Amino acid sequence: MYELDEKKYLYILIVIPILVLLFLFNLYWKKKKQREFGDYKLIKRLTPERSIFKSSLKITVFLLALAFLIVGLVNPKIGTRMETVKREGIDIVFAIDVSKSMLAEDIAPSRLDKTKQLVSQIINKLGSDRIGIVAYAGSAFPVLPITTDYSVAKMFLQSMNPGMVSSQGTSLDEAIQMSASYFDEKSKTSKLVILISDGEDHSEGVESVVEEAEKNGLKIITIGVGTEKGGTIPLKRNGKIEGYQRDRNDEVVVTKLNEATLKAIAKGTKGGYINGSNTKQVLDYVKNALDNIEKTEFEATQFANYQSQFQWFIGAAFLFLFLDIFLMEKKTKWVKKLNLFNEKE
């Protein structure tokens, strides 16, 4: 298992193919000018010590040094062993609405982006709880199983979008059912679902699903994202708005926050509801709720002792730079005698 500390430096690797192209162009330009100057074979005889192979070797060694230096800046880390640690916490599943109505911008920058911000901030406040992620629209889709790896959870969170779920609409009952399936029924660990949505629901079986969840000891906290005034759903291409979502009558759709449905879900499972417009209030509310939920001890297996490996790459980079300094573009006498590259005329 490995991780990269500073991934941004990987973009510098684009310099390497650019330098290769410049080197090849320089060779072509020199050869062309030499042919214009005189007979190419005669020029080679006049400069017997010049070696094309050595110049190619020098640029190769330099590029290897540059590549190793860049990777060293990235600082790869390797998990040297697995260890099982005991933690105390609860199991939390984030059920995130990714329907098209979540693209509405009545909450800046959009309902979906606001949701990602809220979930990310909540994860930052967690201690040793296990988390999972479910995406839903017209159907539910498992995004991330229960895990203690918060960095992976955030990575999956940022990639969520309406295209993940082919069936559009909003099916809250499927979202709850999918979230409930994440939990081990035999486990005594406290179970919590944090459901974030604008509250629009096109399903009919929410009440029965909520009743079943409550019987199984599942508590649901709902967070409403949107405004009662509502907003239109922009249709964008390459970041530019090309129009707005329309219904069958060709009228622009206005989607509004439906708090009543979200409050009913929360009440049915002895959970709670909060409007998601104020991030600090949401974080305080969730923290208070988590503090009042009984924690259970569980085991988690994870890679431990991540060790930095940058020193090996930096060392290799300096070695190649050292070689590059002492590599001359003239032919080496003892190599020349071997005639490895058929350079003798």
Number of helices, where a helix is a run of at least 4 consecutive DSSP H or I residues:
11
How large a portion of the residues is in β-strands, by DSSP E? 15-25%
Shape: elongated
Radius of gyration: 31 Å
Distance between the termini: 54 Å
Classification by helices and strands: alpha/beta
Number of strands: 13
Low-confidence parts: none
Mean pLDDT score, rounded? Answer: 82
**Helical content band:** 40-55%
Largest sheet: 6 strands, mixed
Q: How are strands sequenced across the largest beta sheet? A: 5-4-3-6-7-12
Helix and strand succession? Answer: EHHHEEHEEHHEHEEEEEHEHEHH
Describe this structure in words.
The model has no long low-confidence stretch (mean pLDDT 82). The strands form 4 sheets. Strands 5-4-3-6-7-12 form a 6-stranded mixed β-sheet, sandwiched between helices. Strands 1-2-13 form a 3-stranded antiparallel β-sheet. The longest helix is centred in the first third of the chain and has 23 residues, at 15-37. It has 345 residues and is α/β, with parallel strands linked by helices. β3, α4 (111-125) and β4 (130-136) form a beta-alpha-beta unit. 41% of the residues lie in helices and 24% in strands.
